[in-house]
Write a structure and sequence with these properties.
It contains 19 helices and ten strands. By secondary structure, the protein is α+β, with helices and mostly antiparallel strands. The protein has four domains: about 130 residues, Acyl-CoA dehydrogenase/oxidase, N-terminal domain (Butyryl-Coa Dehydrogenase, subunit A, domain 1, Orthogonal Bundle), CATH 1.10.540.10; about 100 residues, Butyryl-CoA Dehydrogenase, subunit A, domain 2, CATH 2.40.110; about 160 residues, Butyryl-CoA Dehydrogenase, subunit A, domain 3 (Up-down Bundle), CATH 1.20.140.10; about 160 residues, Up-down Bundle (Butyryl-CoA Dehydrogenase, subunit A, domain 3). The strands form two sheets. Strands 1, 2, 3, 4, 5, 6, 7 and 8 form an eight-stranded mixed beta sheet that branches. The protein has a two-stranded antiparallel sheet with strand order 9-10. Helix 16 runs antiparallel to helix 17.
Length: about 600
């Protein structure tokens, strides 16, 4: 299991914005236990042995192939990591489950299949099923004997999940619910044995059902032809008076939204994990290619433009890891606290994921956009060969694009980030008003020109604190000015979300590097300090740009000028030679042939 939690400060969701964290509060990839490292290596070995050699066969949707891979993963215990021992699982914690998602995330279409199976295909039954439902389905799902899928999306209800039209009506004899409707974009739909399907009982009570393959009235369409993740089974599901036994109602009638939304919180974090894993693999491929591809009588890895790209790819991956495991550990600790207080296992993890739903939404956005950036730059480094199917980077490029769409589009997740934050403030769960007013007072007062703190990382810590202040003044003023109308100002909300994402990442990577330096010494973490400082330097500019766009959208006159002056003050970063730092980062990878931070 992961390190003990009783000595650490556990923030509530969103509290990082108003409270300071210590390096000792953060969990990082450097903290993996020996068991966690062993599981990580198992995932790498599985992809190398079972997946990479047959990627073309997977993409051709060879009948039975993907299901056989899930079965093999089940035989090695990779499907059972986070499931309770009473159902045949390994009973590991949330951090370990996150590691599995990250390190199997580089498996292209296989990654999609296994993530859907262990996540949305199985978790609804584990968390919301009756004891009988769990005993019937979970053991078969976590061994890979059966595969799971999830039916929520419909042709006319994507982001608006509760707008689903599929209906369920109790049969005259009271033994079945008759489902009528259609579901689309169902991952694993072509071979799954068990489906979690959502329908409205009597036309208005949104409810979950467990539907088995072979159910009378339940059929599926042909495989979709997709731009990427071609080897992932994706079909439509059709229900024509499909007879689902009443004992297969999942959870409570009319409470299906609890299943759908709570599962999404966990899925968003796990998507970030898989994206980081996929990005690392794409970066490694690009490093190797840059060392072997020669132009002008030398490897292209020698050129500054290529080093810049490689370094930026590594920086974003390192930052993604930092925020990912910081949040995963929060969820893990919250879950353990809840279990210790007497709550059931399923309620504890769902409650923990809900507590950090804001961070999960931010991670989904950042992780998916990191992967998109890395594979795009990877194609560019490969040049014309990057456009050839002979090189795996072209597959990575195609496969990446879907991540910004599912588990809630990135636009929806940006809006949710601010919506959830503001609602928690109004509910009293999160104190934003007091800190925001303190920042406004600070802006009106004479700046403190006292002695500068010259300690290591003092300037970086000050910058992160100031980035938080820039969010508080901008968001506070926007809410005061727009009041209830702010819900309709999506552009401003997305500006504020981008400020929050950059700032959360900046603090996470700073705390990780501070912790590493405390443990290993300043000299040993020189390159990680380069990564952190380049990210903070760039983040300050991004926060400034998003803040200006927001302020200019709702303020004018003296108010606008004062706020822009405050924003400039709070986003001022110390001069830093990012070119040389990026070269040092790239040179390390070129020397080792891979991402090695």
């Amino acid at each position: 299991m992961s390190a003990a939690t009783d000595t650490k400060t556990l923030l509530k969701g969103g509290e990082w914005l108003t409270k300071e964290s210590l390096p000792s509060d953060i969990y990082t990839a450097e903290d993996f236990t020996e068991e966690e490292k062993m599981i990580r290596d198992m995932c790498d070995q599985f992809l190398d042995a079972e997946v990479y050699p047959i990627l073309d066969r997977i993409d051709n949707l060879e009948p039975g192939l993907m299901k056989s891979l899930l079965t093999k993963a089940g035989e090695q215990g990779l499907l059972a990591v986070a499931f309770p021992e009473e159902y045949g699982g390994l009973g590991k914690d949330f951090v370990t489950a996150t590691i599995v998602n990250e390190y199997l995330g580089a498996g292209h279409s296989f990654s999609v299949a296994i993530a859907a199976h262990t996540g949305i295909g199985t978790l609804p039954i584990l968390y919301f099923g009756t004891p009988e439902q769990k005993q019937k389905y979970i053991p078969k799902l976590i061994t890979g004997e059966w595969a799971g899928a999830y039916g929520l999306t419909e042709p006319n209800s994507g982001s608006d999940a509760l707008g689903a039209k599929t209906t369920a009506k109790l049969s005259d004899d009271g033994k079945y619910y008759l489902l009528n409707g259609q579901k689309c974009w169902i991952t694993n739909g072509g071979f799954a044995q068990v489906y979690t399907v959502f329908a409205k009982v009597d036309g208005d009570k949104f409810t979950g059902f467990i539907v088995e393959r072979g159910t009378e009235g339940f059929t599926q369409g042909p495989e979709e032809h997709k731009m990427g993740i071609k080897g992932s089974s994706t079909v439509q599901l059709y229900f024509q008076d499909a007879k689902v036994p009443v004992e297969n109602v999942l959870g409570e009638i009319g409470k299906g939204h609890r299943i759908a939304f709570n599962i999404l919180n966990i899925g968003r974090l796990k998507l970030c994990a898989a994206a980081v894993g996929g990005a690392r693999r794409a970066l490694n491929d690009s490093v190797v290619y840059s060392k072997t591809r020669e132009q002008f009588k030398q490897p292209i890895a020698n050129f500054g433009a290529i080093k810049h790209k490689l370094a930026d790819m590594a920086i974003r991956i390192f930052v993604g890891e930092s925020s990912l495991y910081r949040t995963a550990k929060w969820i893990d600790e919250k879950e353990k606290q809840s279990v210790a207080a007497g709550r059931a296992y399923n309620e504890s993890l769902l409650g923990a994921a809900e507590e950090y739903a804001i961070e999960c939404a931010m991670l989904k956005v950042f992780g998916s956009e990191v992967l998109d950036f890395v594979v795009d730059e990877g194609v560019q480094i490969h040049g014309g060969n990057g456009f050839s199917a002979e090189y795996n980077i072209s597959r990575a490029y195609r496969d990446s694009r879907i991540n910004r769409i599912y588990e809630g589009t990135n636009e929806i997740n940006r809006l949710l980030t601010l919506d959830m934050t503001l609602k928690r403030a109004m509910q009293g769960r999160l104190d934003l008003m007091g800190p925001a007013m303190n920042v406004q007072k600070e802006l009106m007062s004479i700046p403190d020109f006292g002695a500068e703190d010259e300690s290591l990382f003092a300037k970086e810590r000050k910058l992160v604190t100031n980035l938080k202040k820039s969010i508080l003044i901008t968001a506070g003023a926007a809410v005061q000015k727009l009041m209830m109308k702010i819900e309709g100002e999506q552009e401003i909300l997305m500006n504020l979300a981008d400020m929050a994402i950059e700032t959360f990442n900046a603090e996470s990577v700073l705390l990780r590097v501070m912790k590493m330096t405390e443990q290993s010494g300043e000299a040993a973490t020189a390159l990680q300090q380069d990564i952190m400082r380049v990210y903070l330097y760039d983040a300050a500019d991004k926060v400034n740009k998003s803040g200006k766009d927001a302020i200019n959208s709702f303020a004018e006159g003296d108010e606008q000028r004062m706020m822009l002056m405050g924003l400039k003050r709070f986003t001022k970063a110390e001069p830093f030679n990012t070119k040389d730092a990026r070269r040092r980062i790239a040179d390390k990878m070129i020397a080792t042939g891979k991402y090695t931070f």
